[in-house]
Amino acid sequence: MKLVSCFLTLTALPALAASSRSAPPLGISAGNGTLSVPMQIVILLTLMTLLPAAVMSITPFLRIVVVLHFLRQALGTQSTPSNQVLIGLALFLTIVIIQPVAADVYHQGWEPMQDGRLSPQQAFDEGAKPLRAFLVRFAREKDIKLFVEMAHEPPPRNPNDLDLRVLIPAYILSELKAGFQIGAVLYLPFLVIDLVVASVTVSIGMMQLPPAMISAPFKILLFVLVDGWNLIVSSLMKSFY
To answer: For residue 2, what are the contacts with CB-CB under 8 A and spacing of at least 6?
Structure first.
């Protein structure tokens, strides 16, 4: 519940803040120049559709799911494990990693706003601080510079000056690069097995039998013998600490 609330803080609160700068967030009339309660509910429900995109884009889910898909391709097991299994594993690993950040966002942003101690805009600013610190840790300087230039913003003096509209796409690019780098490294041992099997089958004249069919059991056996799932998951988790 806290994880959902923290992302609601970062997706829904800007709209509420814009509509309630001079009045409480709910229970206001449209005659004051602010949005009515039904309209605010519509905005909140609409912004809830952004929640899956937020979970996939600004959390470790992106890197984890990319690496797991590369692993499945390297093993050559087609659709095993299925997409549902890989996404479920990536989601639960993401929850473990992002839980401290989500708790900070909840306690600093959502909870004070519920108690009436902060306005929606103040809650968004406070709740964004832990997320900004997390994104800065993994966003590459080159990617940040790219989006700072594209947004036509002045160079930041420190990481706290970076806007989320710069940090989030920079983080996504950085995570994609990290995921592809890890995936390329994962491919290497399995590629060696494929090359060896292909060379052997060609040398003995087995042209009709696809080398991938022969190499698949050897790749799976190697992966099981080295306890591959444990190694992959532990390495992914440690890369975020």
So the answer is: 102, 103, 106
